[in-house]
Amino acid sequence: MFLYINYTCLQYPDVRLRMRDGSKLRGFFAKKYSSEELMHNHKEDKNIYRYPLVQYKVIDSIPTLLGLDEGSNLILDIGICEEEISIEGARFCLDRAEIITESTFFGTTDRINQYVFKTPWLALNQENITKYNAADEIEKDDLLTKILIGNLLSMAKYLNFRVEDEIRVKLNVKPMRLNFKGKVMAGFRGEFKSNFSLPDYIGIGKSVSRGYGSIKKI
Q1: Higher pLDDT, 119 or 48
Q2: 26: helix, strand or coil
Q3: Are 112 and 193 in contact (CB under 8 A)?
Q4: Which helix or strand (DSSP H or E) is residue 164 part of?
Q5: Longest CA span, the chain
Q6: pLDDT tens profile 20-44
Q7: To bridge 40 with a disulfide, which of 22, 30, 53, 93 should be the other Cys (CB 3.0-4.6 Å)?
Q8: For the chain, where are the E strands, in sequence order?
Q9: pLDDT for position 126
Q10: Contact yes or no for 85/25 (Cβ under 8 A)
Q11: What is the rounded distance in angstroms from the CA atom of residue 129 to the CA atom of residue 185?
């Protein structure tokens, strides 16, 4: 079973940023468009707990904004209207924007798709990191597979997609350390295969609005 979701991917190929600047990219646009809840997932200074329909990321050094469903038109408007961005006081002219906007396929399929994590996948939280650290190699693979399937199910739920078929996943990832909000955390790089179809650069796992867990079909 599948559905089509509205999807807009906006990239500024003439601007170069660091991967960790994804949060600063989010800060710039969230402040400028503070009246749009989808841009920052806050309402009256309270977090809105849902899968972000607007995501900010740096893919291969290129600033990238992603809009899904209601967020799709917002990102399209930004791509048409914005002329510059400011990151930590540095101003970047947006002379060229590359925009893909379409109705894209989402959901389980009969085909096995292969994806690569373009940015680190934050799979572990306080509840499962202790379990992961105590597990052997096979148990770690099983745990991460269950977490990834859970990430896909959670994403589908917030996008109003009811998953009726079994989601199958084969992971090939390696752990890495990264600095997140001043803390050293475990992330994962690598690839996975699944019978679930996803659009390019959509985020999986924790902190996807800041650019983590971004995937691309290969």
Answers
A1: 119
A2: helix
A3: yes
A4: none
A5: 52
A6: 899 899 999 989 998 888 887 655 5
A7: 30
A8: 2-11, 42-43, 46-47, 54-59, 62-68, 84-87, 90-93, 98-117, 169-180, 183-197, 215-217
A9: 81
A10: yes
A11: 10
CA-to-CA dists, residue 130 to 126, 135, 140, 184, angstroms: 7, 9, 11, 15
Least confident stretch, 45-49, 127-131, 132-136, 200-204:
45-49
Question: Strand pairing partners for 74?
Answer: none
Burial (CB < 10 A; 0-12, 13-18, 19+), residue 104, is buried
Contact 1, 164 (CB under 8 A): yes
Measured in degrees and rounded to the nearest 5, phi and psi for residue 155 equal -60, -45
Give the bridge partners for 11, in sequence order.
64, 98
Q: How many residues does the chain have?
A: 218
Q: What is the amino acid identity at position 182?
A: G
Give CB contacts under 8 A, 24+ apart, made by 206-209.
206/122, 206/123, 206/125, 207/122, 207/180, 208/51, 208/52, 208/55, 209/26, 209/41, 209/52, 209/54, 209/55, 209/56
| 90-134 per-position pLDDT tens digit | 999 999 999 999 999 999 999 999 999 999 999 998 889 999 999
